[in-house]
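question for whoever is on the cluster today: can someone run the full assembly for these? two chains, 227 residues total. i dont have access anymore since they changed the login thing
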Amino acid sequence: ETGVTQTPRHLVMGMTNKKSLKCEQHLGHNAMYWYKQSAKKPLELMFVYNFKEQTENNSVPSRFSPECPNSSHLFLHLHTLQPEDSALYLCASSPLARADTQYFGPGTRLTVL
Amino acid sequence: AQSVTQLGSHVSVSEGALVLLRCNYSSSVPPYLFWYVQYPNQGLQLLLKYTTGATLVKGINGFEAEFKKSETSFHLTKPSAHMSDAAEYFCAVSDPQAGTALIFGKGTTLSVSS
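^ ran it for u. tokens below:
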């Protein structure tokens, strides 16, 4: 596969469930990002990883827990979510976390019941 | 701090008409500028970017944008709209000196009617 892939593409979960979103990039990049995109709201940057180290956390609630085991994989672990967390979650990667072009995956559409 | 403003959250054009999507930025240093497009239920796709050099940048699908430093603008244009251009468009700015990640505008939804 090429580019940035995300699984699953769609996810429905209850507020008490625990689930994980997966992102994989096949571009040889060193930086990876999680964004939240809600209807009628701007794109929200959640987390930034550079060479597997978290370099940015934009005041994201602890019910979202990122994990970056290597430069190619990024996870977002979800637990005890709220209905307002329903959104499109986008993963992106770039060569470096320094003003570089970001390449996006197709997103995971999350619905919290 | 950098910021980007997209004027008009929704733009409607007829098929074959000129497309003009406006983007103004704020930056104390020469910025990098980007336009992305997002089709329904998909991720963002890079249309074009300006880093240095020629101020008129050509991108994919017939789009182009011009960096105008004096106007702090980076408007996106296409001479003739096609139905398939209907999507959401995002302008983004970054500071190459500070090494900041991209800052995105709120997006402009383009509708194309036949």
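summary bc i know u wont read the tokens: The CA atoms of residues 23 and 73 of chain B lie 6 Å apart. Chain B has a mean pLDDT of 93.
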